[in-house]
Amino acid sequence: QELVRQGEALKRTEQMVDKMDQDLKTSQRHINSIKSVWGGLVNYFKAKPPESKPEQNGAPDYYANSRLKEAMMSSKEQESKYQESHPNLRKLDNSDNDFSKADLISSVQRDDSYPKNQQLRAYHQKIDTNLDEMSSGLSRLKNLALGLQTEIEEQDDMLDRLTRKVETLDINIKNTDKRVRQL
């Protein structure tokens, strides 16, 4: 969630840099008008730059990648199930060692690959169940890790793009400042 929030902040920053660049171009037009009559005439006949669209209630247009969204949704769905079944998170229950006859009968009917001793069979099945839960948890972690990797790569690209824009904007601001001082 923090990574998604940071992505939204990056997107807003990029929008602000784009707006600053647009404002700088407008100021450049005004400087050209002030500098000479010819610059004013050129600006008059030159097409005006398109207006940038205003933000709608500050809502960012950033969306986390689909892989991360799916992993987060899946993880949230399984979280309550996981907490109920996790040995350290569930309440200690002394009846955990006592298996009902129905459980034993159903376990005998399900699989004959377990030992014939009913208690040993029940423990083997419990171990298998725990391994299945571990596998499910590791699968969730893998999906989250892959989603995070993709999101980080996308944000890294966004940072590179933003760095280039800021460097260009910095050069343009220095040049504009120099022109204003010359007036």
TrEMBL record:
<comment type="similarity">
    <text>Belongs to the SNAP-25 family.</text>
</comment>
<dbReference type="GO" id="GO:0031629">
    <property type="term" value="P:synaptic vesicle fusion to presynaptic active zone membrane"/>
</dbReference>
<protein>
    <recommendedName>
        <fullName>Synaptosomal-associated protein 29</fullName>
    </recommendedName>
</protein>
<dbReference type="GO" id="GO:0000421">
    <property type="term" value="C:autophagosome membrane"/>
</dbReference>
<comment type="function">
    <text>SNAREs, soluble N-ethylmaleimide-sensitive factor-attachment protein receptors, are essential proteins for fusion of cellular membranes. SNAREs localized on opposing membranes assemble to form a trans-SNARE complex, an extended, parallel four alpha-helical bundle that drives membrane fusion. SNAP29 is a SNARE involved in autophagy through the direct control of autophagosome membrane fusion with the lysososome membrane. Also plays a role in ciliogenesis by regulating membrane fusions.</text>
</comment>
<dbReference type="GO" id="GO:0016082">
    <property type="term" value="P:synaptic vesicle priming"/>
</dbReference>
<dbReference type="GO" id="GO:0098793">
    <property type="term" value="C:presynapse"/>
</dbReference>
<keyword id="KW-0175">Coiled coil</keyword>
<feature type="domain" description="T-SNARE coiled-coil homology">
    <location>
        <begin position="121"/>
        <end position="183"/>
    </location>
</feature>
<feature type="compositionally biased region" description="Basic and acidic residues">
    <location>
        <begin position="90"/>
        <end position="101"/>
    </location>
</feature>
<comment type="subunit">
    <text>Forms a SNARE complex, composed of VAMP8, SNAP29 and STX17, involved in fusion of autophagosome with lysosome. Interacts with multiple syntaxins including STX6. Interacts with EIPR1. Interacts with STX17; this interaction is increased in the absence of TMEM39A.</text>
</comment>
<feature type="coiled-coil region">
    <location>
        <begin position="145"/>
        <end position="179"/>
    </location>
</feature>
<dbReference type="InterPro" id="IPR000727">
    <property type="entry name" value="T_SNARE_dom"/>
</dbReference>
<feature type="region of interest" description="Disordered">
    <location>
        <begin position="47"/>
        <end position="101"/>
    </location>
</feature>
<dbReference type="GO" id="GO:0031201">
    <property type="term" value="C:SNARE complex"/>
</dbReference>
<dbReference type="GO" id="GO:0060170">
    <property type="term" value="C:ciliary membrane"/>
</dbReference>
<feature type="domain" description="T-SNARE coiled-coil homology">
    <location>
        <begin position="1"/>
        <end position="34"/>
    </location>
</feature>
<dbReference type="GO" id="GO:0019905">
    <property type="term" value="F:syntaxin binding"/>
</dbReference>
<dbReference type="GO" id="GO:0005484">
    <property type="term" value="F:SNAP receptor activity"/>
</dbReference>
